[in-house]
Amino acid sequence: MGVVIAIDGPAAAGKGTLSRQIAETYGFHHLDTGLTYRATAKALLDAGLPLDDETVAEKMAREVELAGLDRDTLSAHAIGEAASKIAVMPKVRRALVEAQKAFSTRAPGTVLDGRDIGTVVCPDAPVKLYVTASADVRARRRYDEIIAKGGEAEYDDIFADVTKRDERDMGRADSPLKPAQDAHLLDTSKMSIEAAFQAAKSLIDEAL
Ligand code: C5P
């Protein structure tokens, strides 16, 4: 059983970039658990299946292959929205959490990022980070990212999306987004990517 680094936080907080950097630095496997919800949602959308049938969604969740997950093919806004809708379903969560827990045992260690890693998936992880930033900063970062890739976006729409998704993720009954009691809070609102990484690295080095 390897070491687990659990990273949680709201949409667009910079968890992904941070998790990848940490995994690379420590030579650990990385799983972006948001992609497991997104892949389930995409499979339902592609098959023209409803997003409100828990049994059908659970079946799709059980077919998700962790090895094939790729953010580029799952980044569409509609997929993120659909993912957060099916993420409220306990049977979908149970199926995906099972696969995530299995992943977390890989040696020499793993970094898992999501919404419920420190609270539900890996409650015994020796290092838990809760990465956040103000809704305005997160919306601004997502906006800049889209524009940098040559896309089009309205800042106000993105801000509305980010806050709506926060509400859904924090308000659901099963595994709501919240910091684990023993998580270290990392507010990156005023930090560069490098500063956030250095802060995370110090916390990890202290704990391992
Ligand atoms: O992180 P990302 O935005 O890709 O996640 C998409 C959606 O999947 C989130 O809004 C959330 O509803 C859900 N999710 C979750 N638990 C996780 C990871 C993601 O409920 N561990």
TrEMBL record:
Subcellular location as annotated: Cytoplasm
Gene Ontology process terms (BP): pyrimidine nucleotide metabolic process
Record InterPro entries: Cytidylate_kin, Cytidylate_kinase_dom, P-loop_NTPase
Record domain Cytidylate kinase: where: 5-197
Gene Ontology cellular-component annotations: cytoplasm
Key words, A-Z: ATP-binding, Cytoplasm, Kinase, Nucleotide-binding, Transferase
CDD domains the record matches: CMPK (cd02020)
EC number per UniProt: 2.7.4.25
GO molecular function, one term: dCMP kinase activity
Any Pfam family: Cytidylate_kin
Residues where ATP binds: 9-17
Reactions mediated catalytically: CMP + ATP = CDP + ADP; dCMP + ATP = dCDP + ADP
Domain of life the protein comes from: Bacteria
Keyword presence, Kinase: yes
NCBIfam families, A to Z: cmk (TIGR00017)
Family indicated by similarity: Belongs to the cytidylate kinase family. Type 1 subfamily.
Protein name, UniProt field: Cytidylate kinase
Gene giving rise to this polypeptide: cmk
